[in-house]
Amino acid sequence: MGCTAAATTNGEVRRISTWTVRSSRDGGGGGDGRRQHMTPWDLTMLTFGYIQKGLLFASPPQQQQQKQQLVSGLRSSLSRALDHYPPLAGRLSTAKHDDGSVSISIHCNGQGAELTHSAAHGVSVSDIHSPLYVPDIIRSFFPLTGAINHDGHSAPLLAVQVTELSDGIFIGCAMNHSLCDGTSFWHFLNAWSKISASAAATTHSEPVLDRWFPESIDPRIRLHFTDSNRFITAPPLQETTLHFSRESIAKLKTTANQEMRTTTTNAISSFQAVLAHLWRAVTRARRLSPDGLGRAAWLLNRAVASTTDAAVREWLESWVGDPVFISGGTFGACDLVIGGSPRFDMYENDFGWGRPVALRSGASNKGDGCVSVYEGGVEGSMDLEISLLHETMSALMDDMEFLEAISY
């Protein structure tokens, strides 16, 4: 493991040390050398930002020597976790073709992940967890802010920042979104936390590393690509995390299904009902004309139902013929962009000092109308992290019909 130390500060956050962390099975570097072709789903994300999600803990040890041991333990367990996830210790690689096109793959070359130890002196768990609006300092708790996935040719595909608070700790992770989706991200966090808590060398379930391609698509997809398509700077945003209880979600679901007179074969889900409730409220806050709850939820329901095997295969084949790349923060004035899932196992990430008390995300890919969905801290509940323009957020938080479904 390599290490650099510095006394630099980023706002109120001081960076203490940074290490390159390699698989414990790859002491000399080089990895296993395998290359993995990238699917259209992977490639369309090349101009998107890294996934940035983090966990807030309130109960780690407070003595300085114990804190140093904690960070050392996280480095060791991260190294053992990478034994099971060799692509995360690799880099992206580009092969050039005679016609000027390129093919991009994942090279498991063992260059390693990155772990940074930082400190935010004078900042408490309550400062992060309690305010209605997410404090700006959260953005300093994550590495690789501003990086796009194409940068993974030289930047690590996984970077972690462990930030000491006055009475807790925050673990912020950045993972290349062309390599991993949300399911993969939380699968890795679940595995790392279990390895850390148990000092074991194995994970709860081995990841599936192979990628699937239809027979009609050559895995060596050729692109005419430039990485000049970077983030569009979003206007100043306000962020909040709102909690929906199990009982509130059940009420919204019942109302939506009654309005649309659905049956058991096409019933509106809890997730669809909650998002419809938010969609209507944000539409009102933007001074647009909202439909009823049932209709909004039904539109979401039908969109999900239309994502069939045939539709997915058709999209894959059409993308190869005419590649389109997604850029972070490029939302329309009427858009609401949803990421995450309440089904991801987030609160069971116990590294050895208890469950997290909250989840937060970084600045990557944020724009007006960006919503991250998390499981709630109580079974059956749900949290929504919402980013909106200040005036829209103010109108949303004055909307009593919307707030009736929120728990504090």
TrEMBL record:
UniProt key word Transferase: yes
Organism name: Acorus calamus
MF annotations from Gene Ontology: transferase activity
Name this protein carries in UniProt: Acetyltransferase
Lineage, top ranks: Eukaryota, Viridiplantae, Streptophyta, Embryophyta, Tracheophyta
Entry keyword set: Transferase
